[in-house]
Write a structure and sequence with these properties.
heterodimer; A: 214 residues; mainly beta; 8-stranded antiparallel β-sheet; B: 581 residues; alpha+beta; 4-stranded mixed β-sheet; 46% helix
């Protein structure tokens, strides 16, 4: 069973890891950002979201802005952080006016409880997505770029696809947390896959397949 | 994508003409070479510098890659068989002698180590012998060229055997082989991961090589130097895993591009361009947009004309049209490099876009105009600021205009605002300059084509008497009124052009009443009746189309005002116009 979510936003930044300091975005949404949007709407430790397909609904446009950012991390023990001493001005290359249709599914994990099952979570997700309910505001890559979403029954109800056929090169697929401690994110390794759009459709390979390089 | 395209460029260059340095080597400028014989005896100190543009530039040589060093113990790191005079000769220059002695000790030790590893290489043996004897070293300092050499701070030196014509000691085959073996073994120690450029598991580069030509000092393209950018507990280069090979390839490719003709600089943005396969357009794009520089300021006019020829009905007809073309715009930001824009397009599209840019800019200019037919971008942008100082322009405006020119996009409205502001601020003949008129016309035409300005037709190259837009008519009227005043009172210091342009273009109702009333008096002062009748006819012709003077002109109408003014003024200079006698 596949869930279809249509998302849109004014600005998006799916940051490339190599250009993380002066941010440059990927041209399309990464599977990890898509997963995050679904997790914002509904997630339990017993679920694992998998992205199947991404459809591009608007042409790829870029915009360049300069922002004031902070250069250091705040530590747990400190009370405050004086921005003035650590101010950095950085330019970011972002995507403008984005819209995607995400086809995704989830599977149950080991942490599912006794009374949890697939249908229960599926109904919960559909209810929440229809009402517009979420744990935290879903965002497009970075928290400062919120996104609007709506659940669709089938793909034809949504916006028309943008006919883009392009090879975007290697893109971050997601982070592999299999070697991390439970409920932690240490020892996470990035995974990459070759992202190709054919007539506006990106088929995302499953995480275990060969196409995803770990 | 950026890295991938750069690595493709490296591979293309390495296969075709070897214009890029192989792994483990780099192209370095070495101003002086110590020539020695096989026994290590000093023969002479050769100066490799040539005069270029009134400066002495040293020749570049392919030498083993320099290692980065910094800090107190920096003397422990030395380059193989080349370094500055502290390492090679223990010459301290302005620094402390102790530092120089330490450096020299490291250098000598390294050469001896090489000698032990490669006892058959004559060059290395000779260098070792040279370094062992202090009289030979002293002879270097007594040579006539030494005075020049010691003046250069941190002057790099290397060795050459007298028997060899051009090959340096550090370029010998045995040494290259030795270096390759060494680098392979050192790679065993670096952690492995998936390279995000190639997708294959490979040793990951911790620090990336610096890129020269964007910043004042070489800076790495990607770096993480503050804790705010670390994530998932990883540091430095491991945050974005790029394999050593890929890292070497893309940094070398970028450095090669920045040093070559494939780049141009406007404001603070340095743009490099290259294509998948070798194309003549690669080296021409800088000329096309930027003009030729001081030596040949009109070089681009020939290029633009030949570009027009390569198109037919607006479509590119040459066979290599489908090749991919890449454009990367970089600018400095306090010791970091920012990507301003990145485009993947095709040769055909780029050629079409550049010709569309020049076509949009074309506007009438006087027969004896000092301005070239096709204006290069920096000169155009200079029209938007005081004294033509591009540094005072908002940097984003430059990026947006370059983007619009290269991709046939809309021009930003801030361009129109800047142009109109300069129109109001400048005096006399510089009210609406040729450059500004070109840019305003390009802005309006692109906006009209995109459908943003309804019910407006595109602006022509020269005067359009049928045009009814109120801004255009008022601009024309203003030019006519100014002309009448000038002819009535020759030799005026300040015409209505100087005093009333700003008010006339933004709030016409406040000034046009006064101006038309004054023109009656000016007309009666004119000497010849024929002239008076002609000018009055022209004035009436324009006023007939105006219903009433509006309170306020919006920004697009103000743009049309400037164009109308410019067109009418140019029309007065045309020799066959009915208005002139």
């Amino acid at each position: 069973m596949s869930f279809i979510l249509e998302i849109s936003g004014e600005l998006a930044c799916f940051t490339r890891p190599e250009l993380k300091v002066e941010r440059v975005s990927y041209p399309v949404i990464t599977p990890s950002a898509a997963r995050n949007i679904l997790m914002a709407i509904m997630w339990k430790p017993g679920m694992r979201w998998k992205i199947k397909q991404i459809e591009i609904l608007k042409p790829i446009q870029w915009v360049n802005i300069r922002r004031n950012e902070v250069g250091i991390k705040m530590s747990d023990r400190s009370q405050s952080l004086y921005i003035e001493e650590n101010r950095q001005q950085r330019a970011s290359m972002l995507l403008k006016d984005v819209a995607y249709r995400i086809h995704a599914d989830f599977e149950m994990t080991k942490e599912a409880g006794e009374r949890d099952n697939y249908m229960k979570f599926a109904e919960m997700f559909k209810r929440r997505a229809k009402k517009g309910q979420y744990f935290h505001q879903p965002y497009l890559g970075c928290r400062e770029f919120p996104c609007h979403f709506r659940l669709l029954e089938n793909a034809e109800e949504g916006l028309p696809r943008e006919d883009i056929t392009q090879d975007f090169g290697f893109m971050l697929y997601d982070m592999d947390f299999s070697k991390s401690d439970p409920r932690d994110s240490n020892r996470a390794e990035p995974m990459f896959y070759q992202c190709k759009a054919v007539n506006g459709v990106i088929t995302v390979p499953p995480a275990e397949s060969e196409e995803v390089k770990k | 994508m950026i890295f991938y395209a750069l690595t493709q460029y490296y591979q293309r260059k390495a296969k075709s003409d070897g214009g890029v340095a192989p792994e483990g080597f780099e192209n370095k400028e070495i101003p002086f070479i110590i020539v020695i014989d096989k026994q290590g005896k000093f023969i002479q100190l050769e100066d490799t510098r040539e005069v270029q543009n009134k400066k002495k530039i040293a020749r570049t040589f392919l030498v083993p890659k320099g290692l980065g060093r910094s800090g107190k113990k920096s003397y422990e790191i030395c380059n193989l068989l080349w370094d500055h005079y502290g390492y090679v000769l223990a010459y301290a220059g302005e620094k402390e002698q102790e530092q120089a002695d330490n450096q020299h000790a490291t250098f000598t030790a390294k050469v001896n180590e090489l000698k032990a590893a490669l006892p058959d290489d004559l060059g290395i043996v000779a260098v070792a012998a040279f370094l062992a004897s202090s009289e030979e070293k002293a002879k270097v300092m007594q040579s006539p060229n030494w005075a020049e050499c010691s003046k250069i701070k941190g002057c790099n030196l290397t060795f050459r055997l007298a028997e060899e014509a051009t090959t340096l000691v550090c370029q010998s085959e045995a040494l290259q082989h030795y270096l390759q073996q060494n680098s392979q073994s050192s790679q065993e120690n670096t952690p492995k991961g998936i390279c995000l450029v190639t997708g294959k598991p490979s040793p990951i580069a911790r620090l990336h090589n610096a890129v020269k030509g964007v910043n004042a000092k070489p800076a790495p393209f990607t770096s993480v130097n503050l804790s705010a950018f670390e994530s998932y507990g990883k540091e430095q280069g491991f945050i974005f895993p790029v394999g050593e090979q890929a890292m070497f390839e893309y940094t070398t490719a970028l450095n090669t591009l920045l040093a070559s003709d494939n780049r141009f600089r406007i404001g603070d943005i340095t743009t490099v361009c290259w294509s998948e396969k070798p194309t003549p357009l690669e080296t021409k794009v800088p000329f096309l947009l930027n003009g030729g520089g001081k030596d040949n300021p009109d070089a681009h006019i020939g290029e633009v004309k030949s570009l027009y020829k390569s198109l037919h009905n607006g479509k590119f007809i040459e066979p290599n049209g489908k090749d991919k073309f890449y454009l990367l715009g970089l600018s400095p930001n306090s010791a970091r490099i920012v990507v301003r824009f990145w485009y993947e397009t095709t040769v055909a599209k780029l050629a079409e876009n550049i010709t569309a840019w020049y076509s949009d800019l074309q506007i009438i200019r006087g027969v004896n105009s000092p301005y070239p037919e096709f204006m290069p971008l920096p000169r155009l942008l200079g029209n938007l600021v005081l004294d033509g100082k591009i540094e005072n322009l908002p940097p984003d405006l430059i990026a947006q205009i370059t983007n619009a020119a290269l991709n046939n996009h809309l021009l930003p409205v801030s361009l129109l605002q800047a142009a109109l502001r300069r129109n109001k601020a400048e005096q006399k003949d510089r009210k609406v300059t040729y450059g500004r008129a070109c840019l305003i016309k390009a802005y309006l035409n692109r906006a009209i084509r995109a459908g943003n300005l309804k019910n407006m037709k595109e602006v022509n190259m020269s005067l359009d008497k049928t045009r009814e837009d109120i801004g255009y008519l008022l601009g024309r009227l203003f030019a006519v009124l100014e002309k009448i005043q000038e002819e009535a009172n020759p030799g005026l210091n300040a015409t209505i052009g100087d005093r009333y342009f700003g008010a006339a273009s933004s709030t016409p109702i406040t000034v046009f009443g006064t101006l038309v009333r004054l023109s009656k008096h000016h007309l009666s002062k004119l000497g010849s009746v024929g002239r008076r009748v002609n000018l009055e006819k022209l004035q009436q012709e324009i006023i007939a189309k105006i219903d009433n003077y509006p309170n306020h002109l919006n920004i697009n109408q103000q743009g049309l005002f400037s164009i109308g003014y410019y067109h009418q003024k140019q029309d007065f200079y045309q020799p066959n116009s009915a208005e002139t006698l």
